[in-house]
């Protein structure tokens, strides 16, 4: 059986990055988009990165264009957008699929570790549920990534401890990360 540290992804320069690089660190793996209603979460992710990086947090940004085409452009254009608008400093990988035939093997494994458990409560959660019912009536019953900015929290031992849908409170994510560091 594979574990987190057995996987590799390509960075925006096309070089393979082994998850082994992150051994002993807390890692947030997040599929991002530059043209999404959740794109402002880049700001909160960067704040967390700056706040906790010295204590062992890594943010692994994996842009994905599978949700309403909200991540157009090349890897360079995406990186430029993120650094210009959100001053991001965390590692950005190449644009990749997180669902389907061409999904990154890392995402196959992450979804096996933590499936979809719902969007929570509140207006954004209700809106996401309504949208997804139109796209996939059975969306609640599969582990697929539902939208941009789904976050997986991996502890220092390489265990997936939680999955945060984009509608979950970022304050809860901050508290969890802090507790794992």
From TrEMBL:
Active-site residues from the entry: 36
Domain named Thioredoxin: residues: 1-181
Any GO molecular function: peroxidase activity
Gene Ontology biological process terms from the UniProt entry: cellular response to oxidative stress
Keywords, in A-Z order: Oxidoreductase, Peroxidase
InterPro entries: Glutathione_peroxidase (IPR000889), GPX_AS (IPR029759), Thioredoxin-like_sf (IPR036249), Thioredoxin_domain (IPR013766)
Pfam families xrefs: GSHPx (PF00255)
PROSITE patterns, A to Z: GLUTATHIONE_PEROXID_1, GLUTATHIONE_PEROXID_3, THIOREDOXIN_2
Family: Belongs to the glutathione peroxidase family.
Name of this protein: Glutathione peroxidase
Organism of derivation: Eubacterium pyruvativorans
């Amino acid at each position: 059986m594979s574990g987190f540290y057995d996987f590799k992804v390509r960075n925006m320069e096309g070089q393979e990055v082994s998850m082994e690089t992150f051994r002993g660190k807390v890692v947030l793996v997040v599929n991002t988009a530059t043209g999404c209603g959740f794109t402002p979460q880049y700001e909160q992710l960067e704040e967390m990165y700056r706040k906790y990086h010295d204590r062992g947090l890594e943010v692994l940004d994996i842009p994905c264009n599978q949700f309403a085409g909200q991540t157009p452009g090349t890897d360079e254009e995406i990186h430029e957008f993120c650094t210009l608008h959100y001053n991001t400093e965390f590692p950005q990988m190449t644009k990749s699929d997180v669902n389907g035939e061409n999904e990154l093997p890392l995402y196959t494994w992450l979804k096996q570790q933590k499936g979809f458990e719902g969007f929570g409560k509140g207006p954004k959660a209700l809106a996401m549920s309504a949208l997804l019912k139109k796209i996939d009536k059975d969306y609640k019953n599969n582990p697929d990534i539902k939208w941009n900015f789904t976050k997986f929290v991996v502890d220092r031992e390489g265990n997936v401890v939680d999955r945060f849908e984009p509608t979950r409170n970022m304050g809860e994510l901050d508290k969890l990360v802090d507790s794992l560091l």
